[in-house]
Amino acid sequence: MIVLQISSGLGNQMFQYAFFRLLKKHHPEVKVKADLTWFSWNDAHQGYELKKLFGINLPEAGPWEIAVTSGQFPHTVFGYRYINRVLRIFDQGYIDSHCVDEMPLKDMISFDTRRNLYLTGYYISEAYYKDDLDEIRRDFAFSAEETSSSSVMAHHIQSVEAVSIHVRRGDYLDPVYEGKFDLLGEEYYRSATARMREIYKNPHFFIFSDDKEFIKTAFDWMPADDRTIVTGNTGADSWRDMYLMSICRGNILANSTFSTWGALLGDPEGRHVIYPSAYILGTDSEIKTINGWERL
Fold it and tell me: Residue 279: is it exposed, middle or buried by C-beta count within 10 angstroms (0-12/13-18/19+)?
C-alpha cells in the first residue's frame, strides 16, 4: 500500500494530486490512498479544497492504514502513543517513509512496492506533471456555475491583452518562515513587466495578492492606466484569483504554487510566463522546459 499525505494550501494540494495520479499510473497493481488528516488539526489556508472546487474524491486512508504505512497513528486518533513507539520497531522491515520532493522520477517509478510506503512532500518538479498536463487541466476545470460570480472581472481580462502579476506575502511574513522564503521586491516586478512589454504589444497588468493592502500602493511606479488591482477574493473565495490568472494571456508569478497553477491551467497557446529564479532563499528554482516559460 502507498499512502500519500495531502496538506497545505490549494496550490500544494494540486501538486500533490498530480503526484497521486502519477503513482496510480506507474503502480497500477498497488493500492494508493490519501492521508487527509492534516486538515483536521491544522487550520492554515482554506482547508481541503480539491473536492469542494473540482469534485475530486480521493480514496482516503483510515487510521490503521496510516499507522501501518507511516509507523504512527494520525494526530486525530488519541491514546496511542505507546503503540506508535512499538510500530517504529518494525519500520525497517515493514514500513518505508519518504519525503520525495526532489526525488528523480525514475526513482519514484522504481519504488519497492512490496513494502508499505508513506509519502510526504509537495512534488513541484515538472517531471511529475508535465507529460499529463492536458488530463490534469481537465481534472482542475473550474465549473461555470462557480466562476459566474467573477464574470465582470473575467470580461475585463478577456477584453484586453491581460498579464497577471502575483505578489505572495501572507504567511511569508510570519516569523516562523523568516529567512526561508524570498519576498520578491520591486526590482523583480519591474524587470518582469518590462519583459512582458517586449512580448505583448499592449499589455494590461492585473495585480493579485494575499496582501490586498500592500498592493494598493506597491505598484504606484506603474502608470495607473496600465494596471488593475484585483480585490475581494479572500478567504474561501481566494481560489477565484487562480481562475482569473488562468484566463490571462501571460503571467508573472510569485514564488508560489498558487500562481504557478494559475499559469499551468490556462490555454498554453501564445502564453508567456515569467517565474522567479529563487523560491526559497539561497536556492535556485527549477528551470522549466514548458514552452513559453522564462526564469528571471
Answer: buried
